[in-house]
Amino acid sequence: MEQTLLNELSQAILTYDVDAAQEVAQKVIDSGMDPYQAIVKGLTPAIGEVGDRFEKGEVYLPQLMMAGDAMIAAVGILKKKMSKDQLQSTKKGTVVIGTVKGDVHNIGKNIVGIMLISAGYDVVDLGIDVEPSKFVEEAEKLDADIIAVSALMTFTAQNMKVVTEYLQMEGIRDKYKLIFGGGPLNEKWAKEMGADGYAPDAISAVSLVNQMMAG
């Protein structure tokens, strides 16, 4: 029975089916199966496989995002029945991500967010055109580990520095790891604007977050 449910969870992610993911997650709860095991053995390997396929060019952004939506929907149901210790053990870290004030581009940011989710992180996506203060407020509210800021235009990338300055003004700059990424940036410029790290693409972003959380 448990293996059947694990297979069904995996299949829901691999077929990008949000409704099926929710239904199977509820079946897991109703059956009395350990929801933690459902996440670790059913959902996580499946979303990892989708991430691998995306990296290889075998699936594209819409499929990646739908798989991420299915994963989030299932986990949301399963977490309601998990103990505090189980919730803590599944938590690799929390990343607050968004596109900086003045910029409405979101495709790159969305890819990074889904890839981080597939790598096991809790990701809070603030969307586009995000005020610098909003990044800090959400990070404080969620006790986040990392703030990731995206920009796709040179003149909006300047606003990334304001995020750094806001953290400094609040006296909490050292509390968070700060990652900047996007088309107009390079590592030198990101560091000059106060970032702890720079990621040119989604795969690099996941690697950088892993390094930061390990350190």
Question: In words, what does this structure look like?
Answer:
By secondary structure, this protein is α/β, with parallel strands linked by helices. It has 11 helices and 5 strands, in the order H-H-H-H-H-E-H-E-H-E-H-H-E-H-E-H. It has helices spanning about 1-15, 20-30, 35-55, 60-80, 85-90, 105-120, 130-140, 155, 160-170, 185-190, 200-215; strands at about 95-100, 120-125, 145-150, 175-180, 195-200. The protein has a 5-stranded parallel sheet with strand order 2-1-3-4-5, sandwiched between helices. Helix 1 packs antiparallel against helix 4 (about 60-80). About 40% of the residues are buried. The mean pLDDT is about 90.
Attribute tags:
globular, Methyltransferase, Methionine Synthase (B12-binding Domains), Chain A, domain 1, 215 residues, 11 helices, single chain, five-stranded parallel beta sheet, Rossmann fold, alpha/beta
Query: Could you say what the CATH architecture of the largest domain is?
Result: 3-Layer(aba) Sandwich
Write down how many β-strands occur, each being a DSSP E stretch of 2 or more residues: 5
Characterize the overall form: globular
End-to-end distance: 40 Å
Offer a concise description of the structure.
The chain has 215 residues and is of the alpha/beta class. It is built from 11 helices and 5 strands; from the N terminus they run αααααβαβαβααβαβα. The chain has 2 domains: 87 residues, Orthogonal Bundle (Methyltransferase, Methionine Synthase (B12-binding Domains), Chain A, domain 1), CATH 1.10.1240.10; 123 residues, Rossmann fold, CATH 3.40.50.
